[in-house]
Every structure is written in structure tokens, then in C-alpha cells.
Amino acid sequence: MSPGAVFAPAFLASAVEAIEMAVIVIGVGATRGWRWTLTGAAGGAAVLAVLVAGLGRALTVVPISSLRLVVGGLLLVFGLQWLRKGIRRVAANGLAGYQGGVHLDDDAPSPGEGFDPTAFVLAFKGVLLEGLEVAFIAVSFGATAHAFTPAIGGAVAAVVVVGAVAAASQAWVRRIPRSALQLVVGLLLTGFGTFWGAEGLGVDWPGADAAILGLLLLYATTAAIAAAVLRRRPVLTPARQP
After folding, report:
1. Where do the structural domains in the chain lie, given as residue ranges?
2. Exposed end of the chain (fewer CB within 10 Å): N or C?
3. Rounded Cα gap, residues 142 and 162, in angstroms
4. Digit-coded pLDDT (tens) for 84-138
5. Rounded to a whole number, what is the largest CA-CA distance in the chain?
């Protein structure tokens, strides 16, 4: 098998996982702040590097299903919280303008107020899980084709390309309306959390990773209906004093 025939599929398969990784990091950073999000992402990348260097081809012994269940459950818990807040914001204010530098999550500490464990842990586990997925892809493609160099090259190239695009998109993300951004991030975390958590329990999704799109559509429809219902509720105002 030619190197190109190994590089291309490894690149494409790894790109899917790298996109999921980038979505989590950008979403958490946009809602919780970038300092501890990027620190968590760097920590996940460091642990991943140690695992890859130490295990090499033996990466398949890592209990990826258990890791998916843990990470998926965590994303689902926080995703549902942010989804609820996003629905309430959109119902109350519509697409309120995003103010640069303002955290969208009410529980997020302001810059300089100290460690943010939520941002750190979500970014750490997202990078570690998706990074392991990329490593498994490289090992599997390399072992099958007896060509590890192009397989690893394709996986690394996918991460670099997606990472560069993600870094360049930060300015665009900052221009997304404030209420819409929290709603979108809640949808993404909830969708990924449901997908990974179910995979960790042994569920085989129809369409593999494409099932994430169906989950996002389901949650987005539910959120739109919930926001419409909340918006139509009568607002109680205090009675005027005589």
C-alpha cells in the first residue's frame, strides 16, 4: 500500500476527532474564559504525550470505553446546565449582544479571581479523550497497512490543521451574540456528552460519529420549543402602590 493511501484516510479520520476536540475547547473557553481552559487543554495534551510515548503500539490496552463514559457524563452534566441557562437567556432577551471579555457562565470566576476547575477539567478530559482517539486511529491504520510513518503523519497533520483553524476562529466566536453563544455551547456539550456516555455503555450509534448531528438537531429543536414556551409565559409585575 502506498504512503498516500495510508496518509489520506488517517488524516480524514483523525480530523473528525480533532474537530470534536477543538469544539469543546473553544466552547468552554468562550463561556468560562481562556486562561484555565487552555491550561487544561495543555495538561491533557501533556498526559496524552506521556501515554503515547510510554505505551506506543500498546495503546489499545487503555480502557477507552470507561474513559468515554466518564467524560461523556461530565460533559452531559455541565452541558445541560449551560443549555438551561442559554434557553432562559434567549427566552428573556433574544439574541442579546455579546460583550467582549464578559463570561457567559454566571458561575465562572472573573479573570484574576483564581482557579476555575470546571474549565480546566472539561478541557483536560476533552483533549485527552479525543487525543487518545487520534492515537488509536494512527496505530490501527499503521498496523493494518504495515506503514506507521504515513499513518502517524496523517494523524498529526489533521490535529495541526484543525488546531490552526480553531485558533484563527476565536475572533469570529467572540462576535457571536451572547445568548446564542451560551445556547450553542450548551447544545454542543450536551450532544457530545450524550454520544460519548452512551458509547461508554456499549451503544453502537447508527452512522457512527454522524449520529452527533442527529443529537444536536434533537436538542436544538427541544431548546427552540422550550424558549418559545418560556417567552409566551406572562410576566408578573409588582402591583403599583396607591
Report:
1. 3-230
2. C
3. 21
4. 888 888 887 776 544 444 455 556 555 556 788 888 998 998 898 888 888 888 8
5. 87
